[in-house]
Amino acid sequence: MTDDRKILFTSVFKPFGEADTLYSRRDSKIELFHNQITKYQGVFSPRVIYQTFGLHCIAHNLGMPSTVLDYPSLTRFIAEIKKGYDYVGIGSIGPNLQKVKRMVEEIRRHSPKTKIVLGGFCAMIENIEKMLEVDYVCFGEGISFMRKLLGFSPEFEFQQPAVAASTSEILGVPFFWGEYRPCVITGLGCPYGCDFCSPSHFFGKKNIQFLKTGQAIFAELKRLSEKYRTSHIGLLGDDNFLADDQRARELHEEVKKSGLQFKLFLFASADLVSRWKPEELAEMGAYNIWIGRESKFVPYGKNRSIDFKQLLADLRKVGINVTLSSILLLDRHTRENIWEDVEDHLAMNPAFSQFAFYSPEPNTPLYERLKEEGRLLLNIPFEEWHAFKQPVFKHPEFSLKEAEQIQARAYLEDFYRLGPGLVRVIATDLEGYLNLRDSKNPRLKARAEMFARSFFRYRTVLQAAAWLAPTREMKAQTREILARVESASRKSGPLEAAGALGIFGFGRLRELRTGFWGDAIQPRTALTRYSGSGG
User: Fold this and answer.
1) CB of 382 closer than 8 Å to CB of 94
2) What values do phi and psi take at 220, rounded to 5?
3) Pair 154, 187 in one domain
4) 172 and 319: one domain?
5) What's the structural domain count of the chain?
6) What is the per-residue pLDDT across 412-423, written as a single tens digit (0 to 9) for each?
7) Where are the alpha helices (DSSP H) in 132-213?
8) What DSSP letter does each residue of 78-91 carry, written as one string?
């Protein structure tokens, strides 16, 4: 008997980050870099859009055909639901609650027989099932939930969908040709259960593994690198990729045996990173590791006895960048010590920085504690419940306005003192090259050669970056790195100068456009159909 049920998975509707309205906030752009990591770096902020990875993973492993709708307009969404789907799954985070509410209303109006499933971190909102007229709320891993809901076995052998991050602009240069960096969804969650961490608690303080062996991960790295013709690949979903040491060691061996070079982005805690020799991580292909420093004043177990400054310096020696995340407005922060914490962060010289407010996301221990203490600001709309504008709780030392100013200053100090993140990445590549070019380890020598192949592009980018830099100090800093790159390769010539002039023009045009029309970039709407054979 043929199963002809129609299934749709959809993100919330755009636009994002254009205006402060019921459905949007200027400070809620749908970009990891521009909204969280390089949000005050202007034209130097990479503009990167991500597909709704979770929805694609569910659809590909569902066991029956389904459709994924990424970033529709409201009009496009309504046109799609009028086709009469049996189930519509909406994936969302909390700040898009009003969008979800509107989408639910439109489904009830145009397709009243449709069953509605809500998933994503929006499902963590307290009493969400009473706030929205949905049929099901998926709290946690969504593939097994949807399979069970549709009458299939919740067990599945994970199949990786072809999902990627796409670059829209760098230094104002639009990537019309499409620059994609594939992502391997290796698993979900983290077993550490830090009090503020919504992913860890959303997935039950577990490391849910989709790809259970290093061999399986390597197979996907090889397949996707060939498909997208790139060595840049993200290992996502796992918020602590090195938590399964055996799987990571297997991947290390597979990459070594293959002779291939990768540039892998991954998340890992400092305690686990420190158990590896930096050279081993480099051999595996680690290129950027996101590490949660959090704070020198709160001894989270993962960070006890870690010399962060030395750890980051050792990683840079082999060409590994670090995205370092710190928390602002912890209970122990005072006017006297909060800048000591920021200075400690800046002294580590990470490639990228995140300064997030202590954020009580629903269903986390932090949320429950602050609720019990009567400190949650429940009058703040969920559109503003995120860690990158103002806190959503009462702090004994700081007002909301003071907190906003502190966060902005921390990001600006990071930018103006350490320089643009893009330039820091080039500096790390150069340091890796200089330290590894004469290595007797063939893997590390090949890594140095991989870095060297980018020097022509770097000479061009650094010239343009020096022209675009907003201060004399930043210009000098950038030119000093350019001189070091030239010393390690060759002097810049007319070709690089011409390219730099073009980039400079695009950069100034981007600044002009931002000044007049804002800097929001809307993601492309995409409709993807899956056979569901992954299950």
Assistant:
1) yes
2) -70, -35
3) no
4) yes
5) 3
6) 999 999 999 999
7) 142-149, 198-202
8) HHHHTTT-SEEEEE
